[in-house]
Protein 1
Amino acid sequence: MMLLLAAVPSWAADTVSIDVGSVYASNEGNSIDPALGTIRGKLQSMFNYTSYRMLDRKRRNLSVGEAGEFELPGRRSMRATPLPSRGDKVRLSIQISDGPRKLLATTLGLRRGGMVLVGGPTHQAGVLILIISAE
Amino acid sequence: MNEREKGGVPDDALIRATLAGDDGAFGELMDRYKGRAFAVAVGIVGDGDAALDVVQDSFIKAYYKLKEFRFGSNFYTWYYRLLVNQAIDRWRKSARSAEVPFDESWLSGDDSPPGAFAYPRTPEDLARNRELGDALQRALDSLPDYHRSVIVLREVDGMAYDEIAEVLGCSVGTVMSRLHYARGKLKEILKEHREG
Amino acid sequence: MDCRAALLKIEAKADGLLPREAEAGLADHLAGCPACAEECAAISATGPALRALAGIRAMEKAPALDVMRTRVLAGIEESREAHRRRSWVARWAWVPAAVALAAAAFLFYPAGTDRSPFHPSTFDVAVEDVESEAATVALVDKGDDLPRVIWIIEDAKT
């Protein structure tokens, strides 16, 4: 790890703050969790569910190359690793698993302050939608 | 806005104020009943998070239906009807309801002589006896919806037979027979897990 | 008093419906009948045990219960806004189950096939690669001012 950091330019050794909100979306009832704040309206425009509830929210500060584990509702987990990045972008390696089953492995580039949603895994009577942002 | 004495304002007055546009009055009504509503909901759906949803959704329903409320009748029996229906609906859609076959094998034919009967009376007592808590929950889950509702309304909320009959839309005789059936199932669990 | 009669009285007593004058007779029977005494104890314990169970759940959820008022009033506010928005939104409503079918509109990455970068838009996310062992993954762009969505459609579990 130390060797790797020594080999990359100093700007790539910044920490990235990763924020993951776990939202339970379903058609049971029609309440939208106030904790979702400003993205409530966006969720309602994008999806057809009637109820959205924030189950959990975690934030971790990670260095480039450091893998952060995020436990998600329903036995699932996410591993996020900041990668060396170019310009003002943040690059993230994200893996989402359901026990031993690997549901997703992706590499994303987004701007600091940017957001992406990862959704679809079934949860109770609806689905999970993860709100992932990076600063 | 006038200052309200805590607990001094009758439900009817809070309802009228809500209908006149004062959402804060509805908030007072919610604060007044949310604890009892949660206890009833959790008895029926078996899960804390589901119970929170049920209470939240039933209050929202109550808010929109408030104009149908007949002044002079009891708010809480009117509201409980919404709550119990919401809870039963939620239960029927949940994974738990599909998972529970009624399995009599864990009812023991225990004829051991009675000793000192020690049963849990507080949450702390029950927290110490995890097995009993789980067994009670399984027994509750295995009861038919309306039988479970009756025993929860009677034993957890302390409602009288006629009030339960009003909430569930059935006769007092039906309430009594469902209660008798549900008590029969639960007392076997309690006898099996008593300490001493 | 026989046990049959006693059992009926025990339930009446549990519901506060046993007349005072019948209490002594019941107490005498219970003193001499261990089986009925045990029934009485178990039936009387039902209420406290169920209330204790509800109490545990309430303690676990106390923080959420405390803010119930706020959540409900916010939910009511959301309902009002949603009503206002509904006719506009209906044209753009997105049904997740149909995602897999709307292939023409989306870049589509079935497990194990070749993939190419996803071009960023306002919510500026570049997907460099995507892979899945146990699901089909769709990338969804809902347009201006809305985040990109990576949608996971899990394979049926056997």
Protein 2
Amino acid sequence: MATAPLPTPAPPRARPSISQRAYAERTVRTIRRRKAVNYVMIGLTWVAAIVATLPLLFILFYLLKKGAGVISLEFFTAMPRPIGEEGGGMANAIVGTLILVGIAIVVGLPIGIGAGLYLAEHRGTKLATVVRFLSDVLNGLPSIVVGIFAWQFLVRPVGHFSALAGGIALAAMMIPMVTRTTEEMVRLVPVSLREAALALGYSRWRTSLTIVLRTATAGIVTGALVAIARVAGETAPLFFTALGNQFMSTSLREAIAALPLQIFNYAISPYESAHALAWAGALVLIGLVLVVSIAARIATRARFGRVAD
Amino acid sequence: MAAPLRAPAAAQPAIAVESLDAWFGTHHAVRGVNVDFAQREVTAIIGPSGCGKSTLLRCLNRMHETVPTARVSGRVLLQGTDIYAPGISPVALRRHVGMVFQRPSPFPTMSIRDNVAAGLRVRDGAKPSRAETDRIVERALRRSALWDEVKDRLKASAIGLSGGQQQRLCIARALATDPAVLLLDEPTASLDPISTQKVEELVYELRREVTLVIVTHNMQQAARVSDRTAFMLAGELVELAPTAKLFTAPGDARTEAYITGRFG
């Protein structure tokens, strides 16, 4: 094993000429400037990151401060008291929100996932391009517009407000979100898995449903949860559809209470006690969303582990 | 070159390919190939990258046509039946011609057992009972020499296995449905040398029961595992000969140039 000869030390350098010194000084200045810019930029992104999370922390802190004191068992089980009276709960609104979100899930998830699967599996077709574009437009549609449309087509013809109309309005908001995340997640499933299933004698639809969709499940569930969390707090689409209800109602054909609506009503009322209930309602709403997402995340992580590379 | 490359064996070949052409869009990937794959033999297909060897292989179970813009013409007779005849379902066909790919592709959401049993779920006829499935899974895993390594964790996720184990799992999955033919598309390309050796031994063993066609980049591998070797170049089949002959006394100057490393 011949080792490479050691490099001979360079002969002692002559004193650098003026131009060499100027060059060296300029290099040092450049490096200093780059370092300074680097620190400034890191600092700016750091500040931006903090500012981005501040509102959430602030909201949570304020909600806890204002609302936590009001929350008791009564809040979950009791009905609202007449305006101006102390105490009372939001049982009707909690049940109402669960029903509305339930309708949105039952209607919106299958359509959204199905559409997303179509977009991913037939990505080149004209229909897919059109649907993708429209669903992006729908995604950006103001929720009040969705509410007005639901009112026009689901409330006016029937002649009365209903939980069903509210749930469908929420579903209409969920569908484009679920569609796009499903598409993204299904696209992440490697072609090799698809081919392996086809080579085993799986038909195309079976490959899509049992292999591709199942592999993408963890991601789709996460996307669906984001969508659910978003519509659970929507107020605007419910104004003209679910309307709100002072009483406990579980009928899909009647106006129904909802947490965001109740929060709104209490917040604009002139009474201190109502304001306190509004804070508590907001806290419960956030808590509900948080609990659902955390629980589902744990469940999917345990069952599906990581998605294939 | 038009000389037919027929198998000397008296028995009917497992697969007979007759004037097969295959395209991707306008790219003519396989050009007028005639070749027989004999029963219970390992046939290796070698050739430089892009010579059409994988495409030829994928025409044997009609996987080629799953790629958009792909086209095929010619005949492929599987035990006498043209698999491109009208009325032949590619889905049903693939249940009889197993395939293993370059990269291990276990289904990540399934356990080891369910991976092996995946093909049974779509097999024709009655679905096997749980006990029968267990028996078939064990047999397939034994045949792919993986049983001893996984028998205690059949319910564990398949992605916990090493790359080599995953590839043998894929072989077990393909074997579970008892295919007549097993196609291997560079099955060791992503494996380490020890795993490669295991897969090669497996291929060598399996030829007693199954007809195997293996596409490989590695000429030494072809020499180790195959009975006969086909050499392809630019979409054409140049030569098919017993492996020992092809590597020592090739009949075509281009084959000799390739195996002696003058190109490719």
